[in-house]
Write a structure and sequence with these properties.
Layout: E1 4-10, H1 15-22, E2 24-30, E3 32-33, E4 42-43, H2 45-57, E5 61-63, H3 67-73, E6 82-88, H4 92-105, E7 109-113, H5 129-136, E8 140-144, H6 157-175, E9 181-183, H7 191-199, E10 204-206, E11 213-214, E12 225-226, H8 234-241, E13 244-245, E14 248-256, E15 261-268, E16 276-279, E17 283-289, E18 292-298, E19 305-314, E20 317-328, E21 331-333
Amino acid sequence: MIFLRIILIFLTFSPESLFSKQGSGIVLVYHRFDEQKHPSTSISSQNFNEQLQYLKKNNYNVLPVSRLIDFFYDGYDLPPKSVFITIDDAFKSFYENAFPLLKNYNFPFSVFLSTGFVNKNRTSDFMDWKMLDELKKNKGEIYNHSDKHKSFIEYPSTDLIKDIETAKKKIEKNLGKSHKIISYPYGESNTFVRDIVKGLGYKIAFSQHSSPLHFKENKYNLPRFSINDKYGSLERFSQIINTRPMNISFVEIINDEKNNSFQLNLKTEFNLNKINCFINSGNLEKSINDNVLVVKVSNASKNQRYRLNCTLLKNSDVYWFGTMIIKHKNKFYF
C-alpha cells in the first residue's frame, strides 16, 4: 500500500512567545445578508449588527486586512483583540444591508471580488463598480477573488494565471491599485496554486478553514471563520473571537486515497488527552502514539471540502487548530 506523506508545518515556539511577541487575530468571512434562501452563506442584518455592537462595546481592534502585510513582513505586532472583517463575492445584499452598519460603527472591512460578476443591472445579485467605489471611499478595501469564481485547483497553470490577472486588471482599471491580497474561491487551494499565487507577487492569501491567525501561519493559506445565521449566534460569535491559536510544532498528513482516508499526526505542548477534534464529514478516530496526536479520518469517499477542527480548553481559554483537506476527482489536496 502506497501512502503520500506531506509535512505541512514545523514550528518552534511556545505559547508565551506566540502571544507576547507576535500577537494573533481572528479573521471573519461573510457572504450574503438577509438572504434566507441561502442559509449556508447568509446572515441577518440583525445578527450582524449585534456582532458589530459586541466588538465595539468590548473594545476589539477591528483592522483592515492590509494590516496583515505589516504583521507578516514588516515586523509590526498585532494589538490585543485584533479582528478582521472580510466579505467574499460582493453580493448586492452586502451593500444594501451590511455596509450601512459598518459605516455606522466606523469599522474597516475588505471585500474579495470576483470581477466577472460585477453588474449594474438592477436585478443582479452583485454590486456594480459605482457601489464598489463607494465602499472604497468608506474604509472598504477591494481585493482579488478571481474573475470567474472557479475553483483554482481545477485550472492548468496558464488558465489560472489568466483568471487572476484578468481580475487584477479590472480592479485596477475601475478602482485603482491595491495591495496584493487574494482569497481563493471556495477557499480551495493546493501547493501548486499557492506557488503560482506567490509567484504573481501576492503577499497573503485566504482560505476558508476555521482557526485563529498567528505569525507562523502559511501566508498563502490563511484561515477565516465563516459566519452565517446557523453558526452566527452572539454566544458562538463571542466564543470565536476570543479563541487563541493552538501552537502546533509539527503536522504531518498521510494520504490513503485507495481506502478513502487520511491521517493527521500533530505535535503540541498542550495536553493531548484534553484535545477534542471534529470533522464535518467522514468518521474520525483520535489516538495518542508516542506523544503524537493521531487523527484518522475514514469513509472520506465524497468529493468535497473536509474541515478538521481541534480545540482545547485551558484556564477558561479556548485554543483552536483548524485545517481543510479537499477531495477533488478522488484525489486529496491540502
